[in-house]
Write a structure and sequence with these properties.
Blueprint (H helix, E strand, L loop, with lengths): L13 H79 L4 H55 L2 E4 L2 E4 L7 E2 L5 E2 L8
Antiparallel strand pairs: 1-2, 3-4
Helix pairs in contact: 1-2
Length: 187
């Protein structure tokens, strides 16, 4: 004779099943809303980065135009003054041989000095523009890091990033010493 042991499986009341289904549906809705909110924030960051890039490009173009205009404005009065001085001096210097050479040397030196100052100012503006471009590149390079930090369950603690590591998460690094952080929970 065989002894049969009846194993009964507990059954859940229909109200409990409905409650679990409603809880499950509510969790799916929350996850969908959280995903939409994160996507909206990422899109907003992309739009802001694009706008920043366009603004910087406009500033660089405006600065180039402004530099050229400032250089023209700086050199124009001196050039006009130079032309006037040369014609007036030339009429007077027909009879004076040695003084003519000294005047031309002084005027040429002044013109060279003005050109040197203009070139120095242009170099300064170029360095400033290069520094601004470098800063923009650093901001653009930081966007993926900020997005990864926002998506991870991590905080800043003592000047470093502390994460809530996922024990089953992917390992990376030469020796597999790094582990992925758990995704950030949203309230």
């Amino acid at each position: 004779m065989e002894d049969r042991i009846a194993v009964s499986t507990p059954t859940m009341p229909p109200d409990a099943i409905k409650a679990l289904m409603m809880l499950h549906a509510d969790m799916i809705q929350r996850e969908t809303r959280m995903s939409a909110a994160i996507n909206e924030q990422v899109q907003s960051l992309r739009r802001e980065a694009g706008q920043f890039r366009r603004d910087l490009t406009a500033m660089v173009e405006a600065a180039g135009t402004r530099i050229a205009q400032d250089a023209r404005e700086a050199v124009s009065p001196i050039t006009a003054e130079y032309a006037h001085a040369v014609s007036a001096t030339s009429a007077q210097l027909h009879g004076v041989g040695r003084t003519v050479g000294l005047w031309f040397a002084a005027i040429g030196t002044t013109l060279l000095l003005v050109l040197w100052v203009a070139w120095t100012v242009l170099g300064y503006y170029r360095r400033e523009l290069a520094a601004t471009k470098d800063e923009l590149q650093r901001y653009e390079d930081a966007v993926p890091v900020v997005q990864a930090f926002y998506a991870s369950d991590a905080v800043i603690c003592g000047g470093v990033i502390c994460t809530h590591a996922d024990p089953g998460g992917m390992r990376v690094g030469d020796k597999g010493q790094y582990r992925a952080a758990k995704p950030r929970r949203t309230p």
